[in-house]
């Protein structure tokens, strides 16, 4: 099997201290996320949650700071380092991200592997394995328009995980699902993520998603982290009106 692009030598902590400008919004954040930890980022619309994920993924250039995963430097503005997105070994599911309509389910899941020059037979085997893990075995030859919403989201998650990412970024992965499917997917997603030994960041506007899936929560308001910690600690001492309103959903 062909070698995949550079990845950290071990499952490692994500360390980021960065600043980016997106339009009129300035986003500044310091993150230290342990391998195997699931961190939910919550915040009002326009707070910069998606922009932060895109900066970590290398899709938005940093204005200042650095992003390091273990011994691999993704970004270091001071040293002029910017690793392209395709070399970061990141699994991503962004809000509104669609499956490739002209590819089968199996081909969608294998897409990242084939892009990294993994032989077709090997990529197919890995894809089928992930489809089985998500309860989608037997659906590999279907096209995306033949899937339900829940099935499509499972395929998107399988595609993100199939490349053996060193970091997982999920932007509102459950937002398009109906209430019943969403409840099922919370438990299923938590189970899959708990078996990974990589840092995972989950952006969500739903505190129930955060409670069910994440180990820790970061609150982002107007581009700044205003509170961070276990949900129990945040419940005991909410630091802003937004957080107090958010917690009413529990």
| Rg from alpha-carbon coordinates | 18 Å
% residues in beta strands: 15-25%
Structural class: alpha/beta
The fourth-level CATH homologous superfamily of the largest domain is P-loop containing nucleotide triphosphate hydrolases
Assembly category: single chain
Using the 3D structure, state the CATH architecture of the largest domain: 3-Layer(aba) Sandwich
Sheet with the most strands? Answer: 6 strands, mixed
Portion in helices: 25-40%
Cα end-to-end separation: 47 Å
Strand order of the largest sheet: 7-8-9-3-10-11
How does this structure look, described?
One of its GO terms (molecular function) is ATP hydrolysis activity. Keywords: ATP-binding, Nucleotide-binding, Transport. Residues 4-247 form the ABC transporter domain. A hairpin with a 4-residue loop joins strand 5 (72-76) and strand 6. Helix 2 (105-115) crosses helix 3. Strands 7-8-9-3-10-11 form a six-stranded mixed β-sheet, with helices on both faces. With 250 residues, it is an alpha/beta fold. It has helices at 49-56, 105-115, 120-133, 149-162, 179-194, 207-213, 231-236, 241-247, and strands at residues 14-22, 25-33, 38-42, 64-69, 72-76, 81-82, 90-93, 167-171, 200-203, 216-221, 224-229.
Give the SSE layout.
Elements: E1 14-22, E2 25-33, E3 38-42, H1 49-56, E4 64-69, E5 72-76, E6 81-82, E7 90-93, H2 105-115, H3 120-133, H4 149-162, E8 167-171, H5 179-194, E9 200-203, H6 207-213, E10 216-221, E11 224-229, H7 231-236, H8 241-247
Parallel strand pairs: 3-9, 3-10, 7-8, 8-9
Antiparallel strand pairs: 1-2, 1-4, 4-5, 5-6, 10-11
